[in-house]
Design a protein that fits this description.
By secondary structure, the protein is mainly beta. It has a single domain, classed as Lipocalin. The chain contains no helices and 8 strands. An 8-stranded antiparallel barrel has the order 1-2-3-4-5-6-7-8. A hairpin with a 4-residue loop joins strand 1 and strand 2. The chain starts with a strand and ends with a strand.
């Protein structure tokens, strides 16, 4: 049975210098094209499913598909990079799908109590 990981932290969006909470659930064993996890942005009221994409530069890559965004505060269709070697913290990067331009990042910490 795969080991589901739970992560949390605060993200930073570059264009408006905003900060927001992140709660990430990740199944690093998910196959390409399958759901690799979920992400919730509690302070924005948004949530998304994550789909595993082919690895890039030794990192897991997931595309984000919003499932909740009642106030239209989040961007649908972004892509995130997640290091394979994560330890208890890792640096998360989010890119716009169309341009590939990096638009946000975060430091996430693993919840080891679950």
């Amino acid at each position: 049975m795969p080991s589901i990981e739970h992560w949390s932290g605060v993200g930073h969006q570059y264009d408006d210098d905003s900060h927001w909470e992140i709660e990430l659930t990740l199944d690093p064993a998910a196959r390409i094209g399958a759901r690799i996890g979920t992400i919730v942005y509690p302070s924005l009221g948004c949530a998304a499913d994550l789909t595993r994409e082919p690895d890039r530069d030794g990192e897991l890559v997931a595309s984000e598909h919003l499932t909740l965004d009642p106030q239209h505060r989040c961007v649908d269709g972004g892509e995130m990079s997640i290091p394979r070697e994560r330890g208890l913290t890792f640096h998360w990067r989010w890119r716009y799908l169309e341009s590939g331009e990096e638009g946000a990042d975060a430091e996430l910490t693993r919840d080891t109590s679950q």
